[in-house]
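Quick look at the format.
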Amino acid sequence: MFNTKEKAIKELPLLAEELGLKYIPGDTFMRDFGKIQGIYEDYQLEIDPHTGDHKRFMFTLKNKTGPCRICSFSSPYNPLNDNLKTFDCAYAPFNRYFKTRYANDKLAELFEKPDSDFRMMVRMIVKWGWWIPGALEKQDGSMCIEDNKLCFSETNPKKPAVLTAKKIKQILPQLHLAAMTVDKILSGD
């Protein structure tokens, strides 16, 4: 599923062109294969298929909910913004998956007292959170919502590899759907 360095570097510009995005060459000395950036299905997107042992898909969300940090990993993050608070979602699997949960009062209230539609969307996000590491070759994956950014990333220092163009094309529609769902959740509608 993964390509060699040379083939991957050749594939990325072609994939960017196919998706209508821009390829930005990387520093091959630093094991950086470049990035793909641009507007994908009405979302600002950055794909970093291989920088060292790290791979990342980052969507810029449309809803400006103010500061928040909701991550699948534990973080000693100490918000500088006094308006952020920790919260527990009424849907317990969300709390198990997202170990770091800081949000402003409005967003925290949405998670603490969700209606049935909201609960369904939160379930979908947790499902994607568990699915994404498997889609990224069952390595250490994470999902993080920070302010207006949604980031899916994966790290595996024991087996550094680059995502192939084929794999990026395969999982990008699912990640886009997750971004749209997170955007809907953050809108509070």
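Next, a different chain entirely:
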Amino acid sequence: MRRAFRALPSRSLSRLPLALALGAGVCAASLGCSGGAAGEEVVPADEVVPLATPLPAPAPSIYDEDGKLLPSERVLGGLTLPLGLENEQQGAGRHLFEARVPAEKLVQYLGPRLFTGEVEQHGNGASFLGATPLRPSGTAYRMDVLVTERGPTRSALLIRIADAPTARPSEPTEADLRDYHERLD
């Protein structure tokens, strides 16, 4: 091969890289040579679109199968609080929560868990005054529990705890429970 190049005039040698480049270009254009697999287009690195990130897993539901609020791990004054409460503000025995649930769902959750003779309904909310948790987790405190509506899907829960804990309440009789639940309806 070397001899062949030596035999060529020097002017021909300077055009040889140009001829090879043109030949390779013609081959690529006519044969569809792209350097990749057949039919695959090579995209420059700066034009590659990143793959979509997977969607996050859905948050666990705060409702059971029947649409009732589930209890949380949080206990306040012997009362187990429901899931869905956030942004607690507290001071002087008062605890204020925002809830991402309708007021009627909070009332349905709290009603069976509080024992009181003073239940006042206002709109979709309610006030449970002088209430004591029925099945307390820990020491039971006498408390006022107020549920107010803040729109169709939001509500507020205010719990005012008395200064001194009450004695652990005795188990209510069937007649007490029946009378209490009739007053809630």
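The mean pLDDT is 79.

See the schema section for token definitions.
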